[in-house]
Amino acid sequence: MSHIPVLLHEVVATLDPKPGDFVIDSTVNRGGHAQALAKRIGKRGTLLGIDWDPEAIKTLQNKKTEFPSRTHFEHGNYAEIPGILKRLALPKAQALLLDLGFSSEQVDTSGRGFSFRVPRGGEEPLDMRYNPREGKPAAEVLRTIQEQELADLIYQYGEERYSRIIAKAIALARRRKAIRTTGDLAEIIKNAVPKNYEHGRINPATRTFQALRIYINNEFGNLSSLLTHLDQCVTSGGRVAVISFHSLEDGIVKRHFQDLVKAHQAAFLIKKPLLPTREETAANPRSRSAKLRAIQLV
Ligand SMILES: C[S@@+](CC[C@H](N)C(=O)[O-])C[C@H]1O[C@@H](n2cnc3c(N)ncnc32)[C@H](O)[C@@H]1O
């Protein structure tokens, strides 16, 4: 299924870019939000689209003509935007968007094992990296990580109360046979947790997969780094919008924004996070957990 941009109307209305503005989409993926923003800034405007997934950038490079503005599509980590701006000799932007997590294509077709639920059945190798050219794949992490550290990360990033039991089961299983695929890992977790796990509301592998993805991609470190350096990316008066998909990342965004407002470095554009309408969640179930927060730099 192709990725449907979440809270699209709300993002464009909040960032409210004007003709000729410079806008950064820090997680451009297939350019859903970027295209709507590019329409607003027009041919005098500049769009910088960044993604850590080289496949996403490769796809967009061939679609430049579909964007009415001047465009730069860059493979990179949003934590490094200040350096990317310098390298491309670009100024600070009037608006910056961050749409966190992974896209539908990454789950459905990347073959990198982002989900225990593989479309069309079957299994995928456990990689989970947005950028397969950097860091270690999940299978390698699961082979080498200490049981205690694994339990801690599953607890911290997955809020999984059976973290210790799951880490122990993984440590035992890997002594017998390498854990290579999404199916291998999902099966180990299913057999480790109580049969009535969360009363069947969610798959027992959900929280552990989320935790591993966050850890492998240093998601919270990257997010905090960008939010700490916003003043190097966005001009005074410029707008920043962030869409998050779970309480842990929303908490990071909320705290950073509150600190900036308290320090008189920003004002809230949205104080209580905006949620998708019922129509949007019905049309795009992935939007269910989305929250939009936004500030304007002083
Ligand atoms: C939810 S998708 C964005 C979808 C996009 N807004 C759209 O509507 O088409 C999130 C994207 O962020 C990218 N990403 C994750 N971590 C990143 C990072 N540290 N730096 C840059 N991109 C990152 C992922 O590769 C993914 O393509």
How would you characterize this protein structure?
By secondary structure, the chain is α/β, with parallel strands linked by helices. It folds into 2 domains: about 10-30 and about 45-55 and about 65-105 and about 220-295, Vaccinia Virus protein VP39 (Rossmann fold, 3-Layer(aba) Sandwich); about 130-215, DNA polymerase, domain 1. About 40% of the residues lie in helices and about 15% in strands. The chain contains 13 helices and 7 strands. The chain has helices at about 10-15, 30-40, 55-60, 80-85, 105-110, 140-145, 145-160, 165-175, 180-190, 205-215, 220-230, 245-260, 280-285, and strands at about 20-25, 45-50, 70-75, 95-100, 235-245, 265-275, 290-295. A 7-stranded mixed sheet has the order 3-2-1-4-5-7-6, sandwiched between helices. Helix 7 packs across helix 10 (about 205-215). The longest helix has 16 residues, at about 245-260. The structure holds S-adenosylmethionine. S-adenosylmethionine binds near residues 27 and 222.
According to CATH, the fold-level topology of the largest domain is Rossmann fold
Q: Count the domains.
A: 2
Order of helices and strands: HEHEHEHEHHHHHHHEHEHE
Give the tally of β-strands.
7
Q: How are the strands ordered across the major sheet? A: 3-2-1-4-5-7-6
Helix content range? 40-55%
Mean pLDDT: 95
CATH homologous superfamily name of the largest domain?
Vaccinia Virus protein VP39
- What does the overall shape look like? globular
- What's the level 1 CATH class of the largest domain? Alpha Beta
Structural class by helix and strand composition: alpha/beta
Beta fraction: 15-25%
Bound molecule kinds, no repeats? S-adenosylmethionine
Low-confidence stretches: none
- Radius of gyration computed on alpha carbons: 20 Å
**CATH-derived architecture of the largest domain:** 3-Layer(aba) Sandwich
Distance between the termini: 40 Å
Biggest sheet layout? 7 strands, mixed
SS element count, helices = 13
